[in-house]
Structure formats: C-alpha cells, structure tokens
Amino acid sequence: MRVIWLGHSGFRIETEGAVLLVDPWLTGNPMFPADRRAEATDGVTHVLVTHGHGDHTGDALAIAKQYDVPVVGIYDLMSWWEGKHGIKIVGFNKGGTVKLGEARVTMVNAVHSSSVAGPDGPVYVGGEAGFVIRAEDRSIYISGDTDVHADMGVIAERYHPDVGILSAGGHFTMDMEGAAFAARRFFNFRVVIPCHYRTFPLLEQSAARLSAALPPGTRVIEPKVLEAINL
Q: I need a surface site. Which of 39, 82, 140, 151 has the fewest CB within 10 A?
C-alpha cells in the first residue's frame, strides 16, 4: 500500500486494485505543483470526499469527469452532484461500508461543518465525515476535518486502525496537541500522518508538538508532497 500526500488534506492511496484520491484539491492549492497534476491523478479509480468545503472538493468533479470514475461520499452531496453534473457516484452514509476494488471503506463521524458555495451563499448538502479504509491487513483512519470527539473511541474499538491520517493544523480543525490527545486517548496507532497544515500561515507549520506528545513507538511521518509513504 502506498500513501501519497497531495498537499493540505489530499491523498492518493494505492491499494489492492484501487487508486483512491481523497479530498483532491489541486488547482489553486499553494502546496501542489500544478505541472505534476497528471502524476497525481493517473490511474484513479475513485474520488473520495469527506465534506463539501472547497479545499476538499476542489478538483473532485473535474477528475471524475476526466477519468469517468465515481465520486464517493455522503449521500446528500453525491446525489446533488449526480443530478447537477451528471457524474457517477457512490453515495452512502455514516456507518455504511462500500467496497472499492478490494478495499473496504467505512464512513465515520467527524465534528466540523459542510457546505458548498451557492449563488446566494453557502448551500448545506449533507454532513461532514471521516473514513476508515481497510485493505492489505491495514486499517487507516482518515479523520477528515474535525475536532477531538468521543466517537473516536467507538471508531478505535470497532475498526482498530493502526494508521491515523489526522487533521492537525488548528484554527479550522484540531491542532497538533489536539491530534496527539486524540491519538493517546482513543487509538493505538503504529503510524500517524498529520494533514490540513502548512498550507497557509494561519495553520500550524510543523508536527513537532504532535511528535513530542505521542507515546514512544508511535511513528509520526511528516509527509512530503508527491513522495510515497509505503505502509
């Protein structure tokens, strides 16, 4: 399994016949090199979206249309996009599990907000979510944009994730100390990968506080854009 950061909260996950692009915001992302777009999207089989904000949905529709692949996410947003843009979708909801290639993807709770831009202001279409991806004897928890919340305990007990991809930039989500608290309090991660940081000066720029607050034996990987992490 390979996990490749696309900057901000975007990831490319290659596993068991599937290439999953999670929250692919490429166009206008200050961390993503525009001339490497094809490298990031080549071979995509599914686009996963955690919620409606533009820094997560940015290129989802364009990629879905270019490669004729489904967008996977909460039913309300998916069905709205299907009717409005004619794309393929896999719409489901929290607690549901779908099979993408040989990977099983479960939608789990997050604590944030979710909207898309409309002509008269924000349009609220479904809720915010995270994902648990189980493949190749790995269980990966993708928190989505969230604060620490008690449901993380249920996620940990039920799905036993050994890899955590955690929003940790602060201001809009939990910060590094919050992500460390969540990891210590609820999970037993082997690897933690922070995201939703470094993109703008407003966000945290280093995962040092996360690393310092985690128990010995937990590996924190500060991802580099388009460099593969082999799990």
A: 39
